[in-house]
Amino acid sequence: MTAHGSTRTGALARTARAFEIVAMALLAVMTALLIVQVVGRNLLDVGLPWAEELARYAGLGVVYLAAPLLLLNDAHIKVDMFEAKVRGGAGRALRLVNEVLVLAFCVVFLWGGWLFMKRASQFSTAALAIPNWLYYLPAAVGMVLLTLVATARVLRALRVLRKGSAS
Predict the structure, then answer these.
(1) H helix intervals, 7-122
(2) Cys staple from 16: which of 68, 70, 101, 104, with CB 3.0 to 4.6 Å?
(3) Predicted structure pTM score
(4) d(CA 149, CA 36)
(5) CA 129 to chain centre
(6) Considering all CA atoms of the chain, what is the largest pairwise distance in Å, rounded to the nearest integer?
(7) Which pLDDT belongs to residue 113?
(8) CA–CA separation, 147 vs 73, rounded Å?
(9) C-alpha span between 146 and 106 (Å, rounded)
(10) 67 neighbors 149 (Cβ within 8 angstroms)
(11) What Rg value do the Cα atoms of the chain yield, rounded?
(12) Could you tell me which of 76, 112, 82, 75 has the C-alpha nearest to residue 97?
């Protein structure tokens, strides 16, 4: 069992758990950088733009690398008041529609990210001159895995819908 109560195995789950470990490390790095930044600014009267840039990079990684495991374990934030009240075949169909919408969001996000990076990859970050393709890589990698997880959830919802309609 993981911290989220999942017993899922397989390559997708192992990859998502590995991403979670990287996200936790990035959270520690981000916290340390923010402390350094506050101390530098408030006690030493020194601005540290490089620390800000790296903290933002770490924050980007935390969000996008942790999201796939949350979705895989159904531990993400969701509004399910209506879905919880709908039972039977209609409930299974509604859950499928929800999963398809999540997958559609992932696909649109990846497509928009691709369009964004076609232009943004020509530039680098201001303080450390990190190429933008590298700076936004955690978001792209995390969204690819999130898309794979969303696809698996759609397929599972389809199986549940078919199995329920066969009964």
Answers:
(1) 11-42, 49-72, 81-85, 88-120
(2) 68
(3) 0.88
(4) 36
(5) 25
(6) 70
(7) 97
(8) 14
(9) 7
(10) no
(11) 20
(12) 82
| pLDDT tens, per residue, the chain with 167 residues | 344 445 577 999 999 999 999 999 999 999 999 999 999 999 999 989 999 999 999 999 999 999 999 999 999 888 888 888 999 999 999 999 999 999 999 999 999 999 999 999 999 999 999 999 999 999 999 999 999 999 999 999 999 999 876 65
Amino acid at 66: A
* Alpha-carbon distances of 58 from 21, 48, 52, 65, 101, rounded to whole Å: 13, 16, 10, 10, 28
Nearest in space to 56 (alpha carbons), one of 147, 156, 127, 152:
127
Q: How many C-beta neighbours within 10 Å does residue 46 have?
A: 10
Instruction: Spell 99-127 as b/e; 16+ CB within 10 A means b.
Output: beebbeebeeebeebeeebeeeeeeebee
List CB contacts of 136: < 8 A, sequence separation 6 or more. Answer: 60, 113, 117, 120
CA gap 129, 51 in Å, rounded: 13
d(CA 158, CA 21): 31
CB 65 within 8 A of CB 138: yes
**Tokens found for residue 142:** 């995390």
